[in-house]
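note to self — DONT lose this again. spent like an hour looking for the file last time. sequence + predicted structure for the chain T wanted, 346 res
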Amino acid sequence: MTNFLQHSPLSDSERYKHRLLKAILLVIFFASLVIGSINIFLFSAYTIGMLNFTSMALSALIWVYYHASKRLAIAVWLVSGAVIFNLASFIVLAKGGGYSLIWLTVLPPLVFFLLGKRAGFWVTAIFFAAVLTYFYQQLPHLPAQKLSMGAYLNIVEVMIVLLLIFRFYENSRSEAYAELQRISTIDKLTGIYNRAKLDDVLEQHIELMDRSEQPLSIMLLDLDHFKVVNDQFGHLQGDKVLQEVTKVIRGTIRKTDQFGRWGGEEFMLICPNTNAENAARLAEKLRIAVQDFDWQFAVPITISIGIAEITARQSSVEALQAADKALYLAKNNGRNRVEVVTEGAA
């Protein structure tokens, strides 16, 4: 059978639900097996034990259904329903005693994670209202609660389940936050820094240069006649050219250089500890690498590069203006060339 994630790619939210669904089913399966065995062999509570084993079987059936159907939306409702069935059955069998109500605390995080904020709220609210109504009806008949071994185990079991749930949640939240940070700083097409991230990186390097007095240079790189590629071969081919140029440049620059897409067909390279002369040498390597790449196009693919060495007390705006002026010179002087703006030329 074709792998589900390959057959039908999941969105980020669906991927987290998929993982949570698997985790919940595993917890239900093994927790039901352990708790059911304890109830039967330790407390001779055969009815509750059989309920635990039924829960174990249900979790297995839901996983088989989900694995065969790939219907995540239905599977999360089935899991939520199975959890509610188990909680309700246990509370009714215990008649509200034995600290069974503490299991209610397991429901909200599960259904909110699986069903979302709106559906999770209503499912939780309706179930809580039903349980409170049942508990109110049973209140006159409830004996005084004692912290028996069974009640103590209930508390321990709930604490373990909640620990596992919130550990998973925290892992998912951390991963989601990391992914959000990555998306906010990475250009989707090329996989390199976007303009917003480049702005931050440039500011950081300028501050570091002011403290360390080490040289710092920046390059603006622009594809020559890129509009011709888009017009003749289409924008999809144009996107492939941008991706290939990115690979060529990334394979040529140094590990310390910071590379990103400045916008459109324009890129920026930040070169720490590099003066204008050394930056020009590196730029020439980049220019030749792009020029000599086997593009398999009827038109040549080349780049023009403008370089500026950032001076003390120079702002990022002034540095970019200098690099942009150098790029303008490279374009005006025939393209497929490197130009450097010297100090004070901006």
